[in-house]
Design goal:
Largest sheet: 5 strands, antiparallel
Strand order of the largest sheet: 13-12-11-10-51
Radius of gyration: 26 Å
Number of helices: 0
Length: 585
């Protein structure tokens, strides 16, 4: 499959009042929360708003973060000290204003497992909450320290070298230049005093090392011994150009930090080998179209291994890391993917968990989406998606072609004999391909607003080349629905969500249906028989020690149900470690 990019403008009323934005963590349901004025609005990847989850208050939202477990629960901090917990994955909205009183919330951070949430405010109060994937919250303790603290990161490695993701302690700091270590039992102590406010606080999990960048452009690295004392501390003056206070940094590999301070170059700091290199905007293309431009924002997509930079001149440049294993050790390991343009300076770029990249400017907020162009073959027909909402149907023997425009963005298509199905999350259309004239006529249009489609396949059952049944296999939630081509008469194949996960990818050949779930379970059925009778027990794409072998992106089954082909994404680590997820203003 090839790809194209297209824009999904967000229908915000006042783009210049958007203060912060945060992507959810779920690849299956990517959602973007946007704080506009005094409201928080939630959008789908295509730019459609989930209006029932809008939050409206009299003060602006100042920090947000989604629960990291894939559940759709959003924590929002507000300018008056209110903390709210709500979203599509929460049964009800919960809120608290006792911890932070009237102080503006600066940062919201979750530990990797989502069992603890830390909130900080302008007056130096740090709140610790017990949380879960359904939006439950219980205040555990809070601390009060001098100054505003807007940096939080979790220590996910114990001093003895054992990983601790479920309930790790955390480091925090801010304008005082003091780094504290705290837990949820009321224990908090100063661990390092630095003579400059913190611009960036990160944690290098593999080395149990704290990494900090100060306003004085000093990169500081240190560890703590078993007694909590600072050891192995190093300090390095960074070349940050004339505006070190504009420093932005993001992990782009194992111990590799990319940064820029509104310069025409991006610095890469290899903290493992103590080396560095740069990429210049001037060398992006032969036309030197970015000459004199400056980097305003950075983000990295670990699944695609792609780094994005937004510029002052309204450009977005993306580079792909060509190193499949290990660390990108030079600028030669970064391949330019292309340049996109927008209306003015790009103040923020942020990758979502799916195919979207948020571009924020003073005039607009837009999600650039990468659309996979689908294709299918069923002799004598070939169907090829040529645009987001357009499919070309070609008859090989007659050389005729017809363009089909279903009226929605096509996420997948399927051919069976002389029938074609195209689908999106919210709609399915089935077409009949007239064998003699090659004309295309619509057979059915099925609305799926109430049960969004994750994947779908067209099933044509035959005996002696005669069609005996036509079905649609539709993955939605924790089940596969088997419908007739009018969308009626559902039979269900159900999944145990906690064990197997939910189906995310389907394929059909003849009577054989194969499915893959978001927990890497693989199942096969013969639809000519009772679909409740699986051909094989569910297996998982992992080692005997239950170590995942990768994320399955596509699956194909052969005609007699004896072989499977998989396209697998074996992603690299996003960077220094697993210090949790956070959002700060």
């Amino acid at each position: 499959m090839s790809s194209i990019y297209f824009d999904n403008p967000l229908p915000v009323d006042e783009p210049s009042t958007v203060r912060c934005a945060a992507w959810s963590k779920s690849e299956e349901t990517p959602l973007l929360a946007v704080a506009e004025g005094t409201s928080v609005r939630i959008f789908r990847e295509e730019g459609e708003e989930e209006k029932e989850f809008r939050q409206q208050r009299v003060v602006p939202c100042t920090a947000m973060c989604w629960h990291p477990g894939g559940s759709l629960v959003l924590v929002a901090g507000w300018a008056d000290g209110m903390v709210t917990f709500m979203g599509p994955g929460s049964n009800s909205q919960r809120e608290d204003k006792e911890v932070h009183r009237e102080a503006e919330i600066l940062c919201v951070a979750f530990n990797p497992e989502g069992t603890r949430c830390v909130t900080t405010d302008f007056n130096g109060v740090v709140g610790v909450w017990k949380t879960d994937h359904k939006g439950m919250l219980t205040q555990m303790c809070h601390y009060r320290k001098n100054g505003a603290h807007d940096q939080v990161v979790f220590r996910t490695m114990t001093p003895s070298g054992e990983p601790n993701f479920e309930n790790p302690p955390f480091f925090f700091g801010g304008e005082q230049g003091i780094i504290y270590l705290a837990d949820d039992f009321g224990l908090c102590s100063e661990r390092n005093k630095i003579a400059s406010p913190l611009l960036k606080l990160e944690y290098f999990h593999q080395k149990d090392q704290v990494v900090a960048v100060t306003r004085a452009a000093i990169l500081i690295q240190f560890s703590l011994d078993v007694e909590g004392k600072v050891v192995n501390e190093t300090k390095q003056k960074l070349a940050c150009g004339p505006s070190p206070e504009k420093f932005q940094g993001v992990w782009v590999g194992h111990g590799l930090l990319a940064s820029s301070s509104q310069e025409s170059i991006i610095h890469f700091w290899n903290l493992v080998d103590d080396e560095s290199y740069i990429i210049s905007l001037h060398s992006v293309d032969e036309q030197n179209s970015l000459s004199g431009d400056k980097v305003m924002s950075l983000d990295f997509n670990p699944r695609k291994r792609v780094l994005a930079a937004g510029t002052r001149g309204g450009k977005v440049v993306q580079w792909r890391c060509s190193t499949l294993s290990g660390t990108a050790r030079s600028e030669n390991n970064w391949q330019v993917l292309g340049i996109s343009s927008t209306d003015c300076a790009v103040s923020k770029v942020a990758y979502g968990p799916g195919e979207g990249l948020l571009l924020k400017t003073e005039r607009s907020n837009t999600i650039i989406s990468e659309a996979q162009l689908n294709s299918a073959v069923q002799p004598p027909y070939i169907a090829v998606q040529t645009a987001p909402a357009q499919v070309l149907v070609y008859h090989v023997d007659k050389g005729t072609r017809h363009m089909v425009s279903p009226g929605f963005r096509v996420r997948g298509l399927s051919l069976g004999r002389n029938f074609m199905m195209v689908w999106s999350q919210k709609q399915i259309k089935v077409y009949e391909l007239e064998e003699h004239t090659s004309a295309v006529s619509e057979v059915s249009s099925i609305n799926r607003e109430d049960a969004p489609v994750t994947s779908a396949a067209l099933v044509i059952l035959e005996v002696d080349k005669q069609i005996i049944d036509k079905m649609l296999a539709i993955a939605s939630g924790a089940k596969i629905e088997l419908l007739n081509i009018q969308g009626k008469g559902a039979r269900h194949i159900t999944f145990l969500e906690d064990i197997d996960g939910c189906p995310i990818c389907l394929d059909v050949r003849g009577a054989w249906l194969a499915a893959v779930t978001n927990k890497r379970a693989i199942k096969i059925w013969n639809l000519a028989k009772n679909p409740d009778q699986k051909v094989k027990q569910a297996c998982k794409f992992e080692t005997k020690d239950k170590v995942p072998l990768g994320e399955i992106r596509s699956i194909r089954i052969n005609r007699d149900g004896t072989k499977l082909a998989l396209v697998v994404d074996q992603r690299l680590s996003s960077g220094g470690g697993s210090g949790g997820s956070s959002s700060s203003n």
